[in-house]
Every structure is written in C-alpha cells, then in structure tokens.
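Hi R.,

Here's the chain you asked about this morning:
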Amino acid sequence: MHICLFEDRFLGNLLPLNYFRPVFDLRCGILTLRERILGYLHPSSFSLAVRDYLADLTREDCPGIEVNSVTASECLFVNSRVIFTGKLAKELRKAKGDLLFTCGDVVVAARLSGDNLLRVSPGGQAASVDFSSLHSVTRADIEATLVSYPWDLIYANESEIVNDFLLLTKGGKRVQKSGKIHASAVLLGKKHIHVGRKSEIGPGAVLDATAGPIYIGERVKVLPNAVLEGPCSVGAGSVIRVGAKIYAHTSIGPVSKVGGEVEHSIFHSHANKQHDGYLGHSYVCPWVNLGAGTTTSNLKNTYGNVKVHIDGRLVDTGRMFVGLMAGDHVKTGINGTLDTGTVIGPSSNIFGTAIPRKDIPAFSWGDAGGLQIYEFEKALDVAERVMARRNVKVTEAYRKVFHAIFSMTTHDRAVQSV
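And here is the predicted structure, written out as tokens:
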C-alpha cells in the first residue's frame, strides 16, 4: 500500500528542532521517525506532506518521492509524530476499508480511498491534511506514542535505541563486527555490540553493552580511551574523540564529532561537540558547534520540574532533567555556560562565560549582556562555509528555507527586544 507521512497542527510544539526539516525527519533512537515508520511498514510507495516553505527542499532531498501530492487510489496516512512500533504496523496492516485511527483526539493514521481520499487531499494536494470532513468514516481507537515536545524525543531515546537495534539487526541475528577493533579495546556484552564496515575502535576504548546495546555505523572512528555506555548509537562517518565519555541513552547521528561528557542526548547529524564540557538531556540539530568547554545544566538546584520556552509559551516539562534544545547552525563560544532547559533558535551565535537567557530567538548574536540581530547575509555566509567543510553544497532551495525561517522569526526577535 501507498503511505503518506503528514505533519499535524501540533508541529509548532517541536520548534526549534523542526524549522529546517519536517517532523518525520527528527531523530529518536538510531533512526529518524520516518526511517522507523518505513522500516516497519515496508510500503510499496510513499509520499510526504510538508509545510509549503519546506516543499522544494524536501523534493531535492527525496528525489522521485511525491511531495504534497497523493496520486495513488488508496493511501494510508501516518502522523509524523508517531514513534512507530511493530505492533502498530500489524494493527494498521490488518485493517480493512476506510478507517480513522485515533489516540484521544489525535489522528494517528487514516486508511482512505475514493471520495474520502479526495476530501482529505483535494485535487491530490496533501500539503494540509485535514480529516475534519470525514464524518462518515469509522473511527478506531488505537494505542500509540506521539512526540509532543522536544524532550519527548530525548526520553523516548531510552527505548528506541534498543528497538532500533533489534529492527536493524533482525532481532539481534545480524549483529556484526566488520570494522577494525584494536586488541586493547574492551567490549563488554559483545553480542549486543554492532560495529559497521570500515569503522575503527581505537586502543583502550571501552564499549560497555551490559546495560543495553551499542550500534556503531559504518566508517565511524572511536578514538583511544573513549568510553561508550549502552544503550547508545553512533551514526555513519562520525568521530568519537579521545577520552570521550558517552553515557547511556545517547544517539549520535551521521557525520558528527563528539567529545567530552555526554549523557542521554541526541545529535541529529553534522554536529560538533569536540571538546570537554558536559551535555545532558539535550537535542542538538545539524551544523551546531558547541565551543570548547561549553557546559549545559540539565538539573535545577531545587530538583523541581524544568520549564521550557516553546513557540512563545512557557511549558512545564514535568521532567526533572532537561538540558539544551539547539536549532540548526547554532554556535557557542569557548567556556559557554547554558542554563537548564535553554532553547536556542537557528543560526544564533552565543558567547561569553556568563549564563545567557534561556529563550534565545533565531538569528541572535551576543552574550548574557544582550543580544543583537544576526544579519541574514552574514549568517548565511557562515552557514555556507561551514557546510562546505563537510562537502555539502548549499542549494537555492536551502537558501530559500534559510530566508523563510529568518522572515518567520522576525516577530520573535522584536518581542524579545534583541
């Protein structure tokens, strides 16, 4: 069956992580939400429904995939915020006829055909998927876990690294150790450690999978004396620096460089935290560089719930541990100190050793003493130079997204008097 991944009305709750990408491309565990959905459903074809300003970039990133259109005669719509499971896949596959699958008041999935499909996506356009007109379609309650806020991704990392490990290794039957493992490296719980092709585990490195699996992708370098505690994962082409301490429930996406002390965090991809400094219960987007000595608090001295600024609102997370939410292209200076539950919008440059404010709008430049607007052309120029260092070309579609984000966050900067 054809499936369509769609973004729903709650996507603003996941800012700043999803400015540059659809919700289904957020990482949780080893995989992104989209990779997990496709990995369980194995559709014959699929399409993607995204915000208008992301459409051209999504088409560019996904050649040959329908974007904001559904031309199939029947379609299974799947909410991008779902943390998919094998159980959910079985329930959706066995369903017959047109159905709306709901969890509370949220549409988790919808199996539609004929006129019902046309009502949801008039003329085949699925940029805005609206199920409110489907009054005659049967509803079925279903259990599902949906991501509502950034910290939901971080806490779901606990289970999803394990689930993804089983998915990718066929239940542990295809665990491999194809790379070079130095004789002095220590692997504890070897049957739960996967090392991909052309990866290198350096002298004195410790991979401890006694409490959960460790998944090392292809062409990864784990340098000498680094310690990785499972469950954790390191994506293809990434580097774990000398003496790094990577604690449990940490996912490091592709082409990232990570050192220092990291706990219970997600690096989406193409991110740098090469030096000493602590990062805990955080989500780090692509092209972020955390300067040497940057440290993030993830626990209040009162041990109370952390409150986080999300899309103009102060939200009680209900969690004791919440660290940094860093949007794309964020930079911090050396010895930077970030407070519990800090949110930094895309393309911001924050420096100085004093603790800055906890809600930093996109395209901000400054320190704890005050913020200024990071001029668009200067910010874009830096982004292009940074991406070129990883052999990633900034296309016209990417530039348009960059400009769209600058424009849509103008009000945030005005309200915050930056």
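One quick note: The chain is about 20% helix and 30% strand.

Cheers,
M.
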